[in-house]
Each structure stands twice: as structure tokens, then as C-alpha cells.
Amino acid sequence: KQEVTQIPAALSVPEGENLVLNCSFTDSAIYNLQWFRQDPGKGLTSLLLIQSSQREQTSGRLNASLDKSSGRSTLYIAASQPGDSATYLCAVSSRFTAGNNRKLIWGLGTSLAVNP
Amino acid sequence: DGGITQSPKYLFRKEGQNVTLSCEQNLNHDAMYWYRQDPGQGLRLIYYSQIVNDFQKGDIAEGYSVSREKKESFPLTVTSAQKNPTAFYLCASSIRGVDTEAFFGQGTRLTVV
Fold first, then answer.
1. Are the beta carbons of B104 and A101 separated by less than 8 Å?
2. What are the b/e assignments for B27-47, b being 16+ CB within 10 Å?
3. Mean pLDDT of chain B
């Protein structure tokens, strides 16, 4: 059974710091991994999607890497800003245990606070 | 602008009532999903639809019902059979399925009064 874990659950950093958020998964048979951002009381915003055949994806100050063999992904945020404060969620596309339908398996998220 | 619109933003339900949450997308996506989010728990899949006139139960479908009569619409009804409906409900869509990027609405917060 696929399980997704995000550590730490919460992180507080000063503005300008480079930081890394972690996502680990137990079954390496994934199709893709997605990173999302959620502001309090809001929906999710897609940040990056990494296909299983890819090693990393970049968007602006964000860089996500994927190591399927070790079951890990990291989201690197460069030069953090107070506007980056939010909860960051990762999700893997993984097979149902029965049948061929796939679904997203979600981590609980890392709550990030960037202090001015 | 293309996107997903959920309404209402806040909804209050009395005991024994059915309520319907609206989800509309203009992204021309085939797949749509309903998730429930509770504090301290990951997103849980309620129902999903890969194509018009077809939908499948997710992990926690009991007490919920959906329809997919139009490509752009995927309403969720929370029935009186759902014993603990107070939660944040999120609708999402993707071009084909979970192998493609998911886009989310802004959510509906349902409270039982």
C-alpha cells in the first residue's frame, strides 16, 4: 500500500533563506509526483509535476527533484519570501490495490512560515 | 480566464438535510474529482469521473452522490446519510486522469448546524 510522508510537518525560516521540503513514498511504482501549495482556507495551486521518467522540474525559484529508487522527492525554494508562507503538499499517482484505476496518494503537508 | 469554480464558498446544513455543492470548469478537462479535507488528515477522494456520464466511487463515497451530465459540471450532493459532513470540500479536474496535472477550485466549507 502506497504511503506518502512529508517531513517536517512545520517549518519556520527567516526571509531570504534557501530551504528544502521533503516528500517520501513507500512504493517506487509511481507514474508521477506533484507538488501543490495551499493557502489557509483556499484551494490547492499546482506548482510542479514530475513524471516518473524525469529527475527534476523547475519553475522560477522552485526546483523539485525525484529519486524513485529511494522513494524521495524534494522541493527546493530559493531565496524564500514571506509570500511563500503556505502549506506545501505532495501527491503521487499510484495504482489502486485492486483493478487498474490510478489515484493520487497525498501527504499531510509541510506548513511553511517565512518571517520578514 | 480558465479555471474551476466552486460554489458556495460557505454552506451550512441542518441535520437531516441534503445539500449540493457546485463545481464548474471551463478548462475542457475530461476528468473531475471531489476530495474532502479534514484537519490532520490527507485529502481523501470521494468520487471521480473520467468522462461524461460515468463516475466511480473513491475511498469515502458513503453518504455522498454525484452526477456528470455535462463535461464542465460535477456537482456533489452530501446526503443525510453522511454522519459527519463538516469539512472542507475540494473539486479538481485534469485533462485525462491522475497522470496529468490537477487543478483545484477554491473549496467549499460545509458546516452542520
1. no
2. eebbbbbbbbbeeeebbebbb
3. 94
CB-based contact, A42 to chain B, within 8 Å: yes
Segment (H or E) for B111 = strand B108-112
The C-alpha atoms of residue A109 and residue A90 are separated, in whole angstroms, by: 7
Does A116 sit behind a cis peptide bond, omega within 30 degrees of 0 on the bond before it? no
Instruction: Give chain B positions within 8 Å (CB) of A107.
Output: 42
Beta strands in chain A (DSSP E): 4-7, 10-14, 19-25, 30-38, 44-51, 56-59, 62-67, 72-77, 86-95, 102-106, 110-115
**Chain A residue closest in CA terms to B105:** A43
Helix (H, G, I), strand (E, B) or coil at B76: strand
Q: In this complex, is the C-beta atom of B63 within 8 Å of any C-beta atom belonging to chain A?
A: no
- pLDDT by residue (tens digit) across B72-92? 999 999 999 998 999 999 999
Contact of A4 with chain B, judged by CB distance below 8 Å, is answered with yes
